[in-house]
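User: I've been going back and forth on whether these two constructs are worth ordering. Before I decide, could you fold them both?

Assistant: Sure. I'll take them in the order you sent them. The first construct and its structure tokens:
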Amino acid sequence: MKHLLFLLASIAFTSLLAQNEITIEQCYQSAQTNYPLAKQANLLSQKNDLEKKVLEKNRLPTFNLNAQGTYQSEVTHLPIQVPGFPIAIPNKGQYKANATVSQLIYSGGIISSSIEAKSAELLTQQKQIEVNLHQLNKQINQIYFSLLLIESKKELLISHQKQLAIKLKEVNAGIKNGVLVESATTALEIEVLKLNQMNLELNESKKSLVASLANLTGVDINENSTYINPQFNTNVLASIQRPEMELFALQKNQISSSEQLLARKNAPKLSTFATTGLGNPGLNFLDNTLQPYYMIGVKFNWNVFDWNSNKTERKSLLINKDIITTQQEAFELNTSIELQQYQTEIKKIEGLIETDKMIIELRRKVIKTTEAQLKNGEITSSAYTDELTNMFEAENNLTQHKIELEMAKANYNTTKGN
């Protein structure tokens, strides 16, 4: 039973640890859904649906109610006496009320083109949001790799503190045996205090970065979370796959939809209508009584000449297409330059790492020599701590360069869109 409880506890503990493991891919994905700007995609979709419903309603019949009462100073009449009939003079006060229903039969395709233009507009707007969200990845890279660097520095610092503690113990033993003077521990104790200061600075920096990453991504991160060091591959031959490239294509497609809409704008339109109402006078203006009436008919409309305004608008859209093409070319050029800079930086850091490894190897040999000298009282503890500090700095440089290398690779992939 005890073994079973231990096993369950181990599983629970392992699960808890797993929940605290944070990956940079997780941060990317969470930012895409939790960042406030991401909510706009759904809002734009809802807005677009409503706008298309309004356009669809243009296919439905329209109903209009009209009422009018007027009084005029003079009315038209024929002052001719027809034998057997009184002279008909309309009333100066006239009243009418009617209802009209009309139905569009043929719109020249303008409704369908308007709906297609709205769909193209939505795709462009949503892709623009994706472009804006993709730009968050570099912010995430900066924060995430800064946290990795702090974690690595803390590990080195702890290792250095343990090394100093062991050396302090040895020096105190030497003092007790009369081999070393009592002041031999001073430099080591000062070094311990310096390391404590560094640890405090790292902890405070980590708190700030953790809060920033949690706010940016929406991921549940705390000070006990661990960060998985990613390993990126930089494919130099791959093409740029940024969402901006898709945005340029969608913007051109939206312009094409606008061109189609313009082509339908002056197309002939055909509709039917029916009007019924009461008027005094009615359709017979010679009858001065309140009378019902109705009218049915067909209406044809065609804007044959618009002073070339439609043609001018099309030219403007073609210029917009050319503008987008130039923007795309500029984007591709700038991105290629940025990628080249990252490639150069990656090669530089790889060279620095190789040099760091050689420096550390040589520093280790120096440390071994100074340790023996300190133990025999041949050098002061200050001289030993100087070499220990040099070793610590060399290891810090290697750690920093390794993190910078992965960050440069991450920024390369983010810039390329892989």
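The second construct, handled the same way:
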Amino acid sequence: MNKINLGIIGYGQIGKKLISVLLKKKSELKRKMGVDVNIDSICDIDLAKLQKAGLKGINLCRDAKEIIKNKDIDVVIELIGGIHPAKDFILSALKNKKHVITANKALLSQSLAEICKVANENNVNMYFEASVAGGIPIIKSLREGLVANDIQEIFAIINGTCNFILSEMAWDNSDFKKALEKARKEGYAEADPSLDIDGWDSAHKLAILSSLVYSMDVKLKDIYVEGIHNIDPLDIKYSQEFGYSLKLLAIAKKAKGKLRLSVHPALLPKEYLLSQVRGSFNAIYIKGDLVGKMIFYGRGAGPHPTSSAIISDLINLVVDLKRDVNFKKIELKPSGEKLSVQDFQDVSCRYYLRIMALDQPGALSTISGILGSHKISIASVIQKERHQEKAVPIVMLTHHALEKDMQKAVREIHQLSFVKKKPDLIRIQT
């Protein structure tokens, strides 16, 4: 094999950067791979934009079928994102015996098992390193480097927008709105950031990671998801006094035949490496039975890291083809076949609880009594300023308790006449 022909679908920011890098580093890639990487065709719905780009010697089209049905093209790179028509393009490419590379986390979180099944049936490869954590080679590490390990835990900061916002709130004393505005200005947040701040972007990526690690067809409905839009600067301030940092964590944790899958704000001890991850960076902590604890750290999004991951997939494909490894099967079984997903209400952890209450005699003992009645014991408590007329914060850390018991207690505390708003509850991850 002397040459590999690419068909690229999508000419947005990532597509532009990828094409630029492939053209600029064409000689270097050939030297490293031993194969000439040739961009045969590029497809975008805005054909005029393509024609103005000055891409000489490359076929330009607006119909993806021209790429998918082109017998000279070996690899289709899908970069349009979303579910449809991206899914149709990928499935059609696989059925036409094309290897596929994609960065489409939303689609893979929904249809990874189906897409891999079609790839397996057609003896072609499916690569998606860029779908999780940008330039961090986490997919390859899990599929190959750590394949001998029983992965017991994954704790991941895999949304740069949320990590940037929480970092700004922690280090610059910004409120959520101000931090979000800065994230938009710096290019880390979309005009509509709901997918990020509501936790769903992290959930998409967690579904992909946990599907691979546990050979399960993990769906979004299997993941408990809670975003950061309700985080108050007070909670960051008080958690710091207790020695914690606040992060949006994606968690996969295996124990006793059950798999906990969740995305939510969590407090981490400041000495943990994940606590030190600031700005838009991503980090993934993994605990395996053979390697022990590992952490992967780097840029998690953007055209540069994504292009790096896509080219990494391309090199892996060439290596596989040169070794006559025709295809690598990914077979995912329905959840419950090997592991069953744990009901989040049965999760046990420690909690941070902030209650805004009028400073009345017996208030603290009443709250403590409610917690005790739900089998929740208090580890630490602080009561801030004392003003009889105003609500003041009562901040508590609990010992381990079940999520369902904690939720019942919070609902009951919220009904007390001296409690002025719903208590703020954050889980502690240790």
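Notes on the second construct follow. The two ends are 51 Å apart (CA to CA). The mean pLDDT is 94.
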